[in-house]
Amino acid sequence: MTRTTARAAGVLLVAALLSGCVRMPTSGPVVESEVTAGADDVPGIFFDPRPPQEGDPAADIVAGFFEAMKATPIRTTVARQFLSREAAESWTPEQQILTYAELGDASAGTFVRVPLTDVNTYDARGAWQRTDGGVQLGLRLVQEDGEWRIDELPDALIVPDSWFDDWYERAALYYFDPTAQVLVPEPVFVPRGEQYASSLVRGLLAPLGAESLDVVRSYFPPGTTPGLSVPIESGIARVALSGDPDAVDDETAERMLTQLVWTLGQEPRISAVELSVGDRTFTGPGGLAPVNLSFGAAYDPNGDRASTDLFALDEGRLVAGRVGDLGPTSGPFGEPGYALRSIGVNLPGTRVAAVSVTGTDLLLAPAEVPTGEVTTPVIGAVDLAAPHWDHRDRIWVLDRGAGRARVVQVADGDAVELVVPGLTGRRVTELIVSRDGSRLVAVVRGAKADRVVSVRVRHDAAGTVLGFTPPRTLPLPTEDTTRIRDVAWRSPTTVSVLSDINEERSQVRTISVDGAPGGIATGGATSLRGRVRTLVSTPADGEVYALAGRAVTSLIRPERMVPDLPQGLTSLTYVG
Questions:
Q1: According to the model, what pLDDT value does residue 12 have?
Q2: In whole angstroms, what is the distance from residue 330 CA to residue 352 CA?
Q3: Three-state DSSP class for 307?
């Protein structure tokens, strides 16, 4: 058996685990990750693993290799010493990360099987891919200079969940949507500490997989590779890339800088970014280099001109403002005569989509133009949920359809029904869209329990919807509740889920839209008294409210006394 054939045979043992291409490592461009980043924010435990010892049996070599991958700060120099010379040279653990709950005992022999439980796979960018309940990892050993060494193994860093949780944190890589009009954040995990900025840049330059086709695009030219590290000097991140600078025109350079600024802006030590390709340094407006973190603000995924007002219906009439200070609007819906039950407002706060009290019709009107026209793009639906808007001024509305859901998009006044896998024809109770227009998140009702499902939206360069990715069920941290009452955006990459604990208590859990396991700590209240049925939240910085009838609770500052909603006030919402 040749080395290539033997290596392939070993990897076949984990074909299900390693299938696909696997790769590793809020308004405005200064974006906070879900966990604070920075060189100083690292665990205080350092581990220098023991290298192989003379005469170690094969079992000790395997055990020592797995132990050496837990070196901290993160490094693989000792782990490579457990490999044959050729394997040590060719092993590329940067290709993926495999995390496990438990590591079983390896089988005997020169070709060993190592059982792993609850394995999570992360690609070269640090993006979560999937979870497998149990995996048999294959390793082949040879004798080299009279000592046992591992000669065939997967290209992966293989570590316990607990180690990964300590040394990696959530962040986002920023790409453009296919129209290049808005940034789209992609959740990833990156190493804490000094490697943080360098890992973000390496992830940003890693090739995008097939799952990203028609969802996001990168402006870094093929063949562009990062340097060994991204130094940070006096707050300036200096990103030096290899490649042909003459292949980078002004538009491409501007988009590259935008991606870098938004991505590196998650590192608190960085206040500006300098980009060079080959021997050329690229500049921003006015020929300045480096550029500060306000660069690229026009591509804000939260909407660069999004209103921060709240909107609601007061006795059926549209009002706007702040909690406790909602005033009348001057548009058609601010006047009596329209029987409405729910609303959605576009990001600038200038247009309103409203559902009739019967749930059968969708009406559109300006928010503040008294003589504005009222149109009805959807007529004769069964049970319309509250509508939602994306940055392209498109409306996404769910017709629950008495248990057979339909998803309708309204663009330029025209309504089109879209077939969404996992949602169309199912019993769907809620549907929301990300402001960047790249994600749909829905609550699908089951016979015994509800699920939160995420779907990516595929677009062409003109912004036309081409289709959708297969649905992905988002795992909730606990399964002690079955009914989900509401779901709302907490950030561009996370949603908060409101569910029942019992008749007297509810809970709010925040999860990542990519399906990565584990809840996200946001601070504030998570367990609530009363029959809470509604979340009022925004993916941009702002208050988050839970509504139980007229009673309002701040989830950001639970100690804050929030006045009850006035009698007759309903459908409280932020824009989007």
A1: 34
A2: 12
A3: coil
**Residue 387, token pair as written in the block:** 């509508």
Name the H helices within 69-137.
Answer: 77-80, 85-90
Domains, in order of start, for the chain = 58-167 (3.10.450), 171-299 (no CATH), 310-574 (2.120.10.30)
**Coil, strand, or helix at residue 341?**
strand
Q: What is the pTM of this model?
A: 0.90
Sign of CA dihedral 325, 328, 333, 337: positive
Residue 198 C-alpha from the chain's centroid: 20
Res 344: pLDDT: 98
Which H helix or E strand runs over 189? Answer: strand 183-191
d(CA 246, CA 269): 31
* Three-class SS state of 53: coil
Label residue 373 exposed, middle or buried (CB < 10 Å: 0-12, 13-18, 19+).
Answer: exposed
Average pLDDT score over the chain: 90
The length of the chain is 576
Nearest Cα to Cα of residue 492 among 538, 452, 560:
538
Residue in 356, 366, 418, 358 with CA at minimum distance from that of residue 387: 356
Question: What's the pLDDT band for 502 if we cut at 50, 70, 90?
Answer: confident
- Distance from C-alpha of 56 to C-alpha of 35, rounded to nearest angstrom: 41
452 CB burial (10 A radius; 0-12, 13-18, 19+): buried
Q: Is the model's pLDDT at 557 over the cut of 70?
A: yes
Tell me: the pLDDT tens digits for 304-360?
A: 999 999 999 999 999 999 999 999 999 999 999 999 999 999 999 999 999 999 999
Q: Scan for tokens 């029959």, then name that residue.
A: 531
If you average pLDDT over each of 209-218, 404-413, 444-453, which comes out highest? Answer: 404-413
Strands of 534-536's sheet in order across: 534-536, 545-548, 551-554
- How many other CB atoms are found less than 10 A from the CB of residue 494? 20
Measured between alpha carbons, how far is 208 from 217 in angstroms, rounded to an integer? 8
Confidence of residue 165 (pLDDT cuts 50, 70, 90): very high
Per-residue pLDDT tens over the stretch 9-31: 333 343 333 333 222 233 333 33
Query: What number of other Cβ atoms are within 10 A of residue 436's Cβ?
Result: 25
Question: Rounded to whole angstroms, what are the CA distances from 372 to 333, 335, 349, 357, 398?
Answer: 10, 12, 15, 21, 25
CA angle 134, 139, 142 (to 5 degrees): 165
Residue partners of 413: CB distance under 8 A and separation at least 6: 364, 375, 377
